[in-house]
Write a structure and sequence with these properties.
Elements: E1 3-7, H1 12-23, E2 27-31, E3 45-46, E4 59-62, H2 77-93, E5 98-104, E6 116-117, H3 127-139, E7 145-150, E8 152-154, H4 163-174, E9 176-180, E10 186-187, E11 189-191, H5 192-205, E12 210-213, E13 219-220, H6 221-231, E14 236-240, E15 250-251, H7 253-258, H8 267-276
Parallel strand pairs: 1-2, 1-4, 2-3, 4-5, 5-7, 6-15, 7-12, 8-11, 9-14
Antiparallel strand pairs: 10-13
Helix pairs in contact: 1-5, 2-3, 4-6, 6-8
């Protein structure tokens, strides 16, 4: 029977990944940071990495990370501890397992509107992006690995300080969503269940390389806001000022073919789940 270890199983991606692994009837052990409230029922045991001697895992999923929301270029020791030192620890502790590393499209940088694919250069990323790229380089020294660079993950239970949960809250409490500019800036949103599927398929089908975990199409701020407004009676969308931020557009056809992924949670369905939670 397949045995897996999930690092960061109490986090947004980790808990969804743990549930999908359990649904596959896999044996699931977990590593959590402090609280374990979000870990789904059914995991076999909690592992202390400081005492880890387990070498019989088929897959080790590293979903743990420090994400400095709003301060991506601010030095912070947690970038070193979580995003660099942890991948090195896993590399040393589990030499026989395949390590699947949940990375970020932040490694590419974000200063242009050009379409990004798996082979795009990593051009001037932030400190956060550099820390994730360092984690990738460490993971790539492992005998068996797969790296998945994720776009913006969304879904019920996500961190509330980002765009979609923020406008959902505004829609429900104020019946008004205000966007900067004309709402044309695009972002790529990947539902959290789809992100977990990317991790599992990277373990099952992926070779030793980096993949791009994104949905097939990016959505404009206007499209997202109007989708939210349609789900909340009486909500309006307004526009103010300018938005000079670049759009995020991806071409991950190589990843989708290699990892055998051909279905996604529709954005409207995922947003409705967030509104209803």
């Amino acid at each position: 029977m397949t045995k897996v270890l999930i690092i960061g199983a109490n986090g947004f991606l980790g808990k969804n990944l743990a549930q999908q692994c359990l649904d596959n009837n896999w044996i699931v052990d977990v590593v959590v940071n402090k609280a374990a409230d979000n870990v789904p029922m059914g995991v076999r045991q909690y592992i202390d990495l400081a005492k880890a001697t387990h070498t019989d895992y088929d897959y080790v999923f590293n979903t743990a990370a420090f994400i400095p929301y709003g301060a991506y270029n601010t030095p912070d020791d947690r970038l070193l501890e979580s995003n660099i030192q942890l991948p090195l620890l896993l590399h040393n502790c589990f030499p026989c397992a395949k390590i699947v590393y949940a990375s970020s499209v932040s490694v590419y940088g974000g200063n242009s509107n050009e379409e990004i694919n798996e082979r795009s250069p990593c051009d001037s990323p932030t400190l956060y992006g550099r820390s994730k790229l360092s984690g990738e380089l460490i993971t790539a020294h492992h005998k068996r690995y797969a790296i998945v660079r994720f776009s913006s993950l969304y879904g019920a239970g996500m961190y509330g300080g980002t765009f979609i949960p923020a406008i959902v809250k505004k829609a429900k409490t104020e019946k008004l969503i205000t966007l900067f500019g004309n709402g044309s800036r695009k972002q790529n949103y990947l539902h959290i269940r789809d992100a977990a599927m990317f991790c599992i398929n990277a373990a099952l089908h992926g070779d030793n390389e980096a993949y791009l975990g994104a949905s097939p199409a990016s959505a404009s701020n206007k499209q997202v806001a109007e989708t939210v407004a349609e789900c909340v009676d009486g909500c309006q969308v307004a526009y103010h000022g300018e938005d000079a931020s670049p759009s995020s557009v991806y071409d991950n056809r190589y990843t989708l073919g290699k990892l055998k992924i051909n279905s996604f949670v529709p954005l409207a369905d995922g947003i409705k789940e967030m509104i209803d939670e």
